[in-house]
Inverse folding.
């Protein structure tokens, strides 16, 4: 399985290595660096690289490369999923996953890696089990440990590891019992020049934050569960019950977790909440003009907020001289990225941005117009219309505080111009 | 306080300072010191010098300190084996600890100490832990077996750990089952003998399926991979397994989903194609695959590579999902390219309009590689979907108008293909193409343009001028362009002979006189000869109607596709190559899809048979029945009979009488191959040599193969064998490999009690019987013994590949020697490949895997060589005569399932023949060459 892990920063330093079997010399990373040189940018490095004796499987997260080295035929997704899980765990423990954070907590990182994999086989990857084994660092505990000489490694057997509900630790106790569910939908779309939808799909998640004492058994029902035809569940969800009754029945993991994710494909009609009227043109000489207006489309009565437009301009663009009726724009002459932060859209006064684009003198006009990446947020509403009906709790006597929040966001929302 | 302080001590004398801190009395200081040591270790500094001091800290109640020391131990035990022994006692003690966490930790760490000496001490604690009452300990111990196997495989087998592991497959705890499966899979992978350790029967299947629902996501992947290797006995069983696997498709972990897809794809093969069950299942398969495409880009990439296989096998599965493969602007390039591939595969009349408008959009993007592929994709769409051809061509013309250099060049390359697919349809655009002639600077584009001009020379008024313009820099052109130019000008001449004579003369002389490229020269001479002797014939040859090009290109060859389907979710599916092609030392059984429901009854039998064939030597009919068998076989004989001989096949009986002698007498070289030719025995009393003769005539595999064997060589000289001298050789007779030895006693006293052992070797050679030396070998006496060998032993790669290490024990001592086995003893009797398979396999193996050798002093004709090789299980598949040279195409199968394809080139009047061989495992090439040398010179 997984032989070794190297963590490499964006400048190409291997600053952390962990070997679960014999030590593989660091020079193996040279093959990775070769691939890096060949790729145009860091995102384009292929995730599977073959070398004469090893396979390198890598992921790129928060500008760090996590390179796993394998020697036998392995399921690559297994390794890739595991690497993502490692980063998720780091983020869970330290808030974020950067080079300095990893260095700052290297002992915990090393202990974590050691617990997560044994001889290349995943051992404990559930965050609550890990947290029972290795306490996440916090200032209070660090001070307490220094004073008392205790460590952040627990000496008890992680009970969850063997129970039928490995995702939940036993003996949970809260003074305030609460359960919150966030329904988030991300719209991935490609809009063509004329404003028509080429493809649009919804990627939805229900994340929960459950702080309930004891061993509660929850059921969650939906107003319109027929929306789900493609759905992946957290292991805690009882599949049989879902298939027969379309009811989510589960013993929730303690704390934050993703209960389910669903996908509504391009075959169903997806309402697009914003439209963009654009006119970008480049002349043969003397640069080009740009005129963009953003407006709400099918918003179901909600306000569109947090609107940001990102336009990667062609290489030959030197600068943009624009006026905006709302928000702020910036143009980065190095990355050629034009960014317009609009904020909330007022339907009565549509935000507009217009002006001139100056182009390197002598260079021919670009072959194609740039693409517009759009970000937006619509709160209190899931685009698909998904609604939670009710949440019931069994097995425990208290009456928890319950809440459901809906958000629609732009995922990878691109407008061709 | 953070941990980064541990990284800051870089001053001199650091090691010394750490040493004193480690030996400090204060617990806290000790722990800090160990932390510093670990910190240095993680960043790659060498702190192995502190080994004894760190090990001293091991005896502690503090779990964190213990863990840290364990970490250190795992890293450095290898470099300090003697010191590491000091730690053994603590491990043994920790394995008895009342706290299961400590027991598990100890057994886990033990396995990570990769020191041979230590492993022996660990067997007892491990055995106990495998039976521990606590499942957490058991599951940790299960993995530990795999660790030990990696360090010392034979010990694990001897100690019976494998059986204990198999018992864990029926453990009550699903986690333990999953880990046992994982461990067994890993051991299997490493041993590469191809013998699956796990016997998958209905009962184990049931247990695995139950554990599948309850174990962790990673365990599910292991179990699903194991399940995929099971062959259900009938459709009903396959269906019920599928039903229990299907819920896994809704798992959040992409690895679980893809492994489940593998199982379902494989078991679906067993079902009737259009049954309701299959329809339902295909419906359920599509959504999870689509969902994988909204995960991280790395996951998308692996998913896309697999989807590429799946849509080739079952195109209907994703035919409605075209839109999810549309490329996003900020997809990584590796995702973009894969998506494009799949878009073309899914393109059909129903969606072609959408696909084309997308492709056109992509063709204006920034990334050059992607744009090129998009343009090519448009061409492939035109070829695939006939109704769209016109639209594609106009899209390509639009793109040519952009004048972007690389777009134009790609467009011209694909337009050439479109012309070939739809001749005489779109020639109107030629003028537009010609406008861009000057901008073409890539060989492929230039060659394509020249081809177009030549092909349509009669419609292009200034074709001669255009071609002439290329001719100026003829010698600087790429070979591809030169060849095209030559052909194009000859075509032009044949179409417009009046005004192009000068041009054709010019190009012919350029190609034949001034070029040192043999291909170009040859083609030039052929044209020249053709034109000068018979222009009519030339016209027929050069302007002949070309076959239409195939509809879909880039399809994976069906047998390979079936194999790859069995490897969905694995690295093989990412490379689109079978594991044997890239995994080191992987010589195990290749997986095959189960046969479809129609013949699934034979299926399991067939598989068994295959396995038997690999394990046991083929049984050869005894000599009495041999001749009748051969006579009956002539009708079904493989079609390798040389063209001149089929006339004889009818009257086999007659052949045996009078006619035969003269026939045999005719072929002088044949006689050499069959020394017994003169005395043709009657049918009843046939002996092996006559069987060989018949085989010669009918081109049949001479199954009775009396393979050649080398003369005995001195293996163990008397001075090293304390008086025992051994000479020996290897041979393959009737499919049985044997080691023939002569033991000569040069000592003063008799030698008895012989025994033999063979070390692990590349081909798994192992004695299938004990060494049987009948009586004591008296002084100055010699005995011939023959030891039957099997190829079922453990496999380990040797260098050279055929190296065999032998240990012989006798009443005096144990002696070791090494010898090299001739490769031909591994050629199996079932090595004749079907002609078609041969052809596709030959094409399929990349040309860098081709190796060439010269074999000198071969005084035989093609048939003689073929016969001689046939007797050693090198099977001639086809024979061709090209320009007076005889070409023999042959296939060989080695006992470990590796196929080797060879081509022998014989030049008349030259005793040197050229052997080219192709195999997925090129390591065997040298050995095969030596075998050929040996066989042909014997």
């Amino acid at each position: 399985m997984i032989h070794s892990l190297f963590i490499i920063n964006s400048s190409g330093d291997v600053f952390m290595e962990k070997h679960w079997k014999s030590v593989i010399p660091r020079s193996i990373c040279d093959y990775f660096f070769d691939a890096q040189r060949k790729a145009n940018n860091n995102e384009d490095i292929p995730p599977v690289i073959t070398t004469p004796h090893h396979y390198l499987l890598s992921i790129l997260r928060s500008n760090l490369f996590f390179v796993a080295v394998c020697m036998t035929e392995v399921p690559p997704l297994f390794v890739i999923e595991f690497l993502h899980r490692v980063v998720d765990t780091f983020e869970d423990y330290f808030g974020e996953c950067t080079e300095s954070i990893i260095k700052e907590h290297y002992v915990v990182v090393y202990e974590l890696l050691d617990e997560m994999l044994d001889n290349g086989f995943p051992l404990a990857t559930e965050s609550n089990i890990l947290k029972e084994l290795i306490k996440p660092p916090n200032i209070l505990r660090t001070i307490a440990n220094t004073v008392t000489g205790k460590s952040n490694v627990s000496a008890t057997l992680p009970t969850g590891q063997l129970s039928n509900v490995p995702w939940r630790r036993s003996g949970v106790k809260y003074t305030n019992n609460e359960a919150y569910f966030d329904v988030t939908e991300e719209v991935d779309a490609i809009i063509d020049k004329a404003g028509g939808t080429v493809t649009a799909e919804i990627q939805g998640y229900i994340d929960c934050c459950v702080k309930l004492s004891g061993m509660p058994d929850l059921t969650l029902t939906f107003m319109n569960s027929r929306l789900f035809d493609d759905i992946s569940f957290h292991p805690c969800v009882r599949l049989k019950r879902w298939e027969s009754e379309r009811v989510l029945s589960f013993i929730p993991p303690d704390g934050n977790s993703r209960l389910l994710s669903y996908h509504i494909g391009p075959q169903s009609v997806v309402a697009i909440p914003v439209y963009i009227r654009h006119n970008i043109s480049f002349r043969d000489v003397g640069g080009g003009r740009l005129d963009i207006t953003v407006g709400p489309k099918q918003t179901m009565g909600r306000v569109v907020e947090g609107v940001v437009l990102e336009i990667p301009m062609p290489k030959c663009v030197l600068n943009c001289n624009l006026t905006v009726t709302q928000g702020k724009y910036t143009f980065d002459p190095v990355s050629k990225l034009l960014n317009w932060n609009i904020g909330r859209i007022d339907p009565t006064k549509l935000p507009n941005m217009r002006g001139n684009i100056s182009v390197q003198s002598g260079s021919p006009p670009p072959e194609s117009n740039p693409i517009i990446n759009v970000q937006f947020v619509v709160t209190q509403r899931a685009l698909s219309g998904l609604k939670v009906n009710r949440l019931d709790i069994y097995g425990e006597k208290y009456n928890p505080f319950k809440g459901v929040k809906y958000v629609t966001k732009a995922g990878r929302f691109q407008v061709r111009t | 306080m953070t941990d980064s302080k541990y990284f800051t001590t870089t001053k001199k004398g650091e090691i010394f300072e750490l040493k004193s801190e480690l030996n400090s009395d204060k617990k806290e200081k000790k722990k800090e010191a160990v932390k510093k040591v670990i910190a240095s270790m993680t960043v790659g500094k060498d702190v192995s010098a502190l080994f004894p001091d760190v090990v001293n800290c091991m005896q502690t109640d503090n779990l964190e300190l213990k863990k840290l020391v364990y970490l250190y131990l795992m890293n450095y035990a290898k470099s300090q084996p003697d010191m590491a022994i000091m730690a053994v006692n603590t491990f043994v003690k920790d394995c008895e600890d009342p706290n299961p966490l400590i027991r598990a930790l100890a057994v886990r760490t033990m396995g990570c100490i990769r020191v041979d000496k230590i492993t022996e001490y660990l067997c007892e604690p491990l055995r106990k832990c495998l039976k521990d009452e606590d499942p957490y300990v058991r599951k940790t111990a299960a993995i530990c077996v795999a660790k030990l196997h990696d360090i010392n495989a034979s010990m694990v087998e001897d100690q019976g750990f494998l059986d204990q592991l198999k018992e864990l497959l029926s453990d009550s705890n699903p986690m333990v089952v999953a880990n046992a499966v994982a461990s067994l899979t890993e051991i299997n992978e490493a041993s590469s003998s191809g013998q699956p350790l796990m016997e998958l029967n209905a009962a184990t299947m049931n247990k695995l399926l139950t554990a599948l629902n309850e174990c962790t996501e990673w365990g599910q992947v292991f179990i699903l991979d194991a399940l995929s290797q099971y062959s259900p006995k009938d459709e009903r069983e396959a269906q019920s397994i599928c039903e229990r696997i299907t819920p896994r498709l809704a798992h959040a972990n992409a690895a679980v989903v893809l492994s489940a897809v593998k199982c379902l794809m494989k078991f679906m093969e067993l079902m009737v194609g259009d049954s309701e069950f299959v329809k339902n299942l295909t419906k359920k398969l599509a959504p999870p695959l689509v969902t994988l495409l909204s995960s991280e880009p790395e996951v998308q990439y692996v998913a896309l590579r697999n989807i590429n296989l799946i849509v080739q096998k079952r195109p209907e599965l994703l035919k409605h999902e075209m839109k999810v493969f549309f490329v996003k602007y900020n997809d990584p390039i590796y995702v973009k390219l894969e998506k494009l591939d799949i878009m073309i595969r899914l393109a059909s009349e129903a969606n072609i309009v959408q696909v084309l408008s997308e492709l056109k959009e992509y063709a204006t993007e920034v990334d050059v590689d992607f744009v090129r592929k998009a343009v090519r994709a448009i061409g492939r769409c035109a070829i695939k979907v006939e109704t769209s051809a016109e639209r594609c061509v106009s899209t390509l013309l639009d793109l040519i108008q952009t004048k972007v250099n690389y777009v134009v060049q790609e467009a011209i390359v694909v337009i050439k293909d479109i012309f070939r697919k739809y001749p005489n349809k779109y020639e109107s655009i030629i003028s537009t193409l010609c406008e861009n002639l000057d901008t073409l600077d890539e060989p492929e584009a230039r060659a394509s343009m020249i081809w177009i001009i030549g092909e349509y020379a009669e419609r292009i008024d200034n074709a001669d001028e255009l071609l002439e313009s290329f001719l100026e820099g003829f010698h600087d052109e790429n070979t591809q362009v030169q060849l095209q130019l030559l052909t194009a000008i000859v075509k032009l001449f044949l179409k417009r002979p009046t005004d192009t004579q000068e041009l054709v003369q010019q190009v012919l002389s350029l190609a034949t006189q001034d070029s040192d490229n043999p291909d170009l020269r040859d083609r030039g001479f052929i044209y020249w000869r053709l034109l000068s002797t018979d222009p009519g014939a030339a016209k027929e040859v050069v302007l002949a109607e070309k076959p239409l090009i195939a509809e879909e290109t880039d399809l994976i060859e069906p047998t390979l596709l079936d194999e790859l389907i069995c490897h969905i979710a694995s690295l093989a599916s990412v490379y689109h190559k079978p594991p044997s092609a890239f995994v080191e030392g992987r010589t195990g059984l290749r997986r095959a899809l189960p046969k479809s429901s129609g013949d699934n009854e034979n299926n399991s039998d067939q598989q068994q048979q295959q396995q038997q064939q690999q394990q046991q030597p083929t049984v050869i009919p005894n000599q009495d029945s041999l001749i009748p068998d051969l006579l009956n076989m002539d009708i079904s004989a493989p079609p390798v009979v040389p063209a001149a001989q089929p006339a004889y096949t009818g009257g086999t009986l007659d052949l045996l009488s009078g006619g035969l002698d003269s026939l045999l007498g005719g072929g002088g070289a044949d006689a050499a191959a069959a020394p017994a030719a003169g005395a043709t025995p009657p049918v009843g009393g046939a002996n092996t040599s006559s069987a060989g003769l018949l085989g010669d005539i009918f081109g049949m595999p001479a199954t009775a193969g009396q393979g050649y064997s080398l003369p005995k060589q001195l293996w163990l000289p008397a001075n090293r064998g304390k008086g025992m001298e051994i000479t020996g050789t290897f041979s393959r007779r009737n499919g049985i490999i044997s080691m023939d030895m002569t033991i000569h006693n040069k000592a003063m006293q008799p030698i008895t009690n012989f025994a033999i052992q063979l070390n692990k070797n590349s081909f798994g050679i192992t004695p299938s019987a004990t060494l049987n030396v009948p009586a004591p070998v008296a002084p100055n006496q010699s005995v011939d013994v023959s030891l039957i060998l099997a190829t079922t032993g453990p496999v380990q790669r040797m260098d050279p590949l055929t190296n065999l290490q032998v240990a012989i024990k006798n009443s005096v001592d144990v002696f070791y020697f090494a010898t090299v086995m001739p490769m031909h003893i591994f050629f199996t009797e079932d090595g004749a490949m079907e002609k078609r398979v041969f052809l596709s396999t030959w094409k399929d193996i990349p040309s860098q895997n081709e190796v060439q050798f010269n074999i000198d002093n071969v005084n035989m004709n093609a048939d003689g060589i073929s016969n001689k090789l046939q007797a050693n299980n090198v099977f001639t598949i086809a024979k061709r005569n090209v320009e007076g040279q005889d070409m023999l195409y042959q296939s060989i199968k080695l006992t470990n399932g590796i196929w080797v394809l060879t081509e022998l080139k014989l030049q008349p009047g030259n005793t040197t023949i050229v052997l080219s061989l192709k195999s997925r495992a090129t390591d065997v090439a040298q050995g095969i060459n030596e075998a050929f040398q040996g066989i042909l010179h014997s």
